[in-house]
Every structure is written in structure tokens, then in C-alpha cells.
Design goal:
Layout lengths: L5 H49 L1 E4 L2 E4 L15 E7 L2 E4 L20 E7 L5 E10 L8 E9 L1 H52 L14 H48 L3 H30 L5 E2 H12 L3 H4 L2 E6 L4 E2 L3 H18 L3 E9 L2 E8 L6 H8 L13 H13 L3 E6 L4 E8 L17
Pfam families: HATPase_c
Protein name: histidine kinase
Keywords: Kinase, Membrane, Phosphoprotein, Transferase, Transmembrane, Transmembrane helix
Length: about 450
């Protein structure tokens, strides 16, 4: 249940609520209808009881019903409608009772008082009975008399069932209308949440900078918190970039001084000491440069854009003028308009490092292809060179290893490319093919309309 969407949860809850409410309404309506039908039946029995009493006559010294009620059911045996009069020790009853009688309780009634009973009829059915005690006038022989009329209560239950059957289609239609209305209301009410998700996606892709305040009152606090978080993140990135720049500038003079000292030692003939100092300085410069690359890439991750085809053409054009690149056949398969969410300078640096590495070791052909796969761009550079020994390849692709530790001419370029890709939320993978090395750069796809950004706000100089 927790994994169900809010829309589905609300739809199910609303549908259940509508069904339960209409079921309770149906039960209430049937109960009210039953009360109404019983009231009408009692009124009808009261009229028939008056007809029975008014039809009494005294003939040949005996009390008789000279004018029976007009309802023909009184003449049909066990029809469900009966009358009965007990007076002067005699029992008068309708033909519909046949040889049975109404089992009236022995209760005392005041003259003219009416009682209602639920009795058992001739066929075992429940009878709704209305009884009245009267004192007969002298012309009817005088004395007390108990008159009763009864009807089968199953007729009332049948009327209730018929009423329920009549209203069920209308209740079902009403349920569908209410559920549909609830769905529309829910869609309108949840629309800001969908817009909220869309805006967050735009923030990730860089097409929007802030959530803004054009939200319903219930959503506005969340949007404000997200904007505050973005402000804090940008402030942290700005401070990190500033510290990286300060670090670069702070180390520039000491490193240059060390290089000068190495040059003086080399001039004095202390070649080994000079080489050691030079190696340490170059290593420190690489570390500083790598951290600057990471700071730049992280700062531009949400708003940068680099055209892949344009960068590839520019890099290949430069490499073709070099001794390594001029001897190769460069095969390029990049769709125009494909862009990655990365600063143009950083992307050119990463791709250039991989292309330079491929040109250095390729025998005759270097292939560069780029395709969009979902929310990422896969850029594959493949050469037909000897590849990398499997032992070194494992070291270079191992998690947490610095690629420049492997030594050799390709280490630094691969390290820079890997650092830039990881800082942008991507990755660099290496695999030996037959022949050559396949270097695959995976970077986030830039959102349409993102303006290209260029320049390096944090540099080592």
C-alpha cells in the first residue's frame, strides 16, 4: 500500500467512501420506504376494519356481516387478506380464512381502542393485524365485540425489495458520477504536485534555476525550502571554487621556486636531486589541477552545455596537425545537436585527453562515436593499437584508484578524463578490444535549450 501513488490511494479511498455512503443511503431509503409502506398498509387496514364494522347486521336473531368489504381477496382462501369478528360467543370470519382463525391475544381493550399485532397466519406467514374493541348498539344485539383485519406482511417485504431493485441502477449511476467527479477533483488538486516534480526535473537538468513562489499555499513552504537548499548549495560551491583558486595561486609561487631550485641544481651538475624535485613538483601540480577540474565541473553541473559534435571536430582538427594524429584515419559518427551537461572547456579537456591517448597508441584508425541513451550520452573512442595489459587495466578501472598511479604516458590524460566525468555525475570505463582499447565516456545529457557555458572560473594561474 505504501508504494501506491497518491492519486491511486485517493481514488481507491474515494471510491470506497462513495460505495459505503451510497450503501448506507440505500439501506436508509429502504427502511424509510418500508416505514412508509407499513403506515399506508395500516391506514388501508383501518379503512377495511371500518368497512367490516359498518357492514354488520342482526338477522334472524344472529349477528351477520350483511355488507362485506369490496376487496375480492377477502373471498379467496388464504389470499393474505382476512377479517374476523368475535361477539356473543360467535366467531364471524372472512372466506379467505377458510377453516382457520386469527389467534388474537387475550388483551383488554378500551371501547374503540385499536391495537396492532404481528400474528401467525393460516400458512405460517406473518400477518400485520389491526384489532378494535367495540360495544355493539342495541339494533345489533348489544354487547362487546372484537373485530380484526389482517394482511400478509410478505407483501410489505416484497414492496421493499421491489423498491430496492428500482433504485439500485440509479445508485450505481450516481456512484459512477461521484467517483468520476472525485477523480476530476483529485486531478485538479494534485496538479501542483505534478508541476512540483516537473520543476525539480528542470532544476536537475538546468532549465530552471529556482522553484519560485507561484505555488498553492500548501506547497509553497516546500518550494521555499528547496530554493533555500539551492541557495546554500551555490554558496558552498562558490566558497569551494574560491578556496580552489586560492590554493592554486598560493601554491604557484612555491612550486615555481622549487622548479627554479631544481634548475639551479641541474646547472650545478646535481642531476638526480634536480629530477627528484622536478618529479615531486609535477606530481603536486597534477593534484592541484585535478582538484581545480573537479571544482569547475561541480560548479557547472546544473547549468553547463557542450556540443559533442563541435568539440569532436575541433579536437580532431588539432590532432590531425600533430605527428601522431596526422598519420591516422579518424572515423567520426556523432549526431548533430547532441549535447552533454558539462562545461565546454571541461568536456574538451576530457575528450581531448582520451583522443590524444588514442592517437598516441593507435596503429592506423581511431573511431569516435556518440549516442544518447536515456538521460545519458555515451561517447566511445576506439583505436586499433595494442591496448593496455590486463593487469594495468584492472588497476586503472578499480574503484578508488588514481589512474595516474599506473605510470606510463597515458596515465595523466585518463586521470583527468575520469575526474571530469565523475565530477559531472558520469564515468569513464576502459576495455580491451581486438584490437585496441575502447574508452567509453558516459556523461549526463544536456536539457534542450540549455545555454552553452564556457570559460574556467577557477584556474591555476
Amino acid at each position: 500500500m505504501r508504494r501506491l501513488s497518491l492519486r491511486l490511494r485517493l481514488a481507491l479511498a474515494g471510491a470506497v467512501a462513495v460505495v459505503v455512503a451510497l450503501a448506507l443511503a440505500a439501506a436508509g431509503l429502504v427502511a424509510l420506504f418500508g416505514t412508509h409502506v407499513e403506515r399506508r398498509a395500516m391506514a388501508e387496514l383501518s379503512v377495511q376494519l371500518d368497512q367490516v364494522l359498518s357492514g354488520l347486521a342482526f338477522r334472524d336473531g344472529a349477528l351477520v356481516l350483511a355488507t362485506p368489504p369490496a376487496d375480492p381477496r377477502f373471498s379467496k382462501p388464504y389470499s393474505g387478506l382476512y377479517w374476523q369478528i368475535a361477539a356473543e360467543g360467535r366467531l364471524l370470519r372472512s372466506r379467505s380464512l377458510w377453516d382457520a382463525e386469527l389467534p388474537l391475544p387475550s388483551d383488554d381493550l378500551v371501547d374503540g381502542q385499536v391495537h396492532r399485532h404481528d400474528l401467525v397466519g393460516p400458512s405460517g406467514e406473518t400477518l400485520l393485524t389491526l384489532e378494535r374493541s367495540v360495544t355493539l348498539p342495541a339494533r345489533l344485539g348489544g354487547g362487546p365485540a372484537r373485530a380484526a383485519v389482517a394482511m400478509d406482511a410478505r407483501e410489505l417485504a416484497a414492496a421493499q425489495r421491489a423498491f430496492l431493485a428500482d433504485i439500485i441502477p440509479y445508485l450505481a449511476l450516481l456512484a459512477l458520477v461521484l467517483i468520476a467527479a472525485g477523480w476530476v477533483q483529485m486531478a485538479v488538486g494534485l496538479r501542483p504536485l505534478r508541476s512540483l516534480g516537473t520543476r525539480v526535473t528542470e532544476l536537475r537538468s538546468g532549465t530552471a534555476r529556482r522553484m519560485g513562489d507561484d505555488w498553492p499555499q500548501e506547497v509553497r513552504p516546500l518550494a521555499g525550502e528547496i530554493d533555500a537548499l539551492l541557495d546554500a548549495r551555490e554558496a558552498d560551491l562558490a566558497r569551494a571554487r574560491a578556496r580552489a583558486g586560492d590554493l592554486a595561486h598560493g601554491l604557484k609561487t612555491p612550486l615555481q621556486a622549487l622548479l627554479g631550485e631544481a634548475a639551479r641544481l641541474r646547472a650545478k651538475g646535481e642531476i638526480e636531486a634536480a629530477e627528484d624535485i622536478d618529479q615531486v613538483v609535477r606530481s603536486m601540480q597534477r593534484h592541484v589541477e585535478r582538484e581545480l577540474v573537479r571544482a569547475r565541473a561541480a560548479a557547472h553541473a546544473f547549468k553547463a552545455r557542450a556540443d559533442v559534435a563541435r568539440a569532436v571536430e575541433r579536437i580532431v582538427a588539432v590532432l590531425r596537425r600533430t605527428p601522431d594524429g596526422g598519420r591516422l584515419d579518424w572515423q567520426i559518427n556523432v549526431a548533430p545537436g547532441l549535447a552533454v551537461a558539462l562545461d565546454e572547456g571541461d568536456f574538451s579537456e576530457a575528450l581531448g585527453a582520451l583522443a590524444e591517448n588514442a592517437a598516441r597508441f593507435a596503429a592506423s584508425v581511431v573511431t569516435i562515436a556518440a549516442t544518447a541513451e536515456g538521460e545519458t550520452v555515451h561517447i566511445a573512442l576506439r583505436d586499433d593499437g595494442p591496448g593496455i595489459p590486463e593487469a594495468r587495466l584492472q588497476e586503472m578501472t578499480a574503484r578508488g584508484r588514481r589512474l595516474d598511479e599506473a605510470g606510463g604516458g597515458s596515465g595523466l590524460g585518463l586521470a583527468i578524463a575520469s575526474e571530469i566525468a565523475e565530477a559531472a555525475g558520469g564515468a569513464l570505463t576502459l576495455a580491451n578490444k581486438s584490437p585496441g582499447l575502447d574508452a567509453r565516456l558516459v556523461l549526463p545529457l544536456a536539457a534542450p535549450g540549455n545555454p552553452p557555458l564556457s570559460g574556467n572560473p577557477a584556474t591555476s594561474g
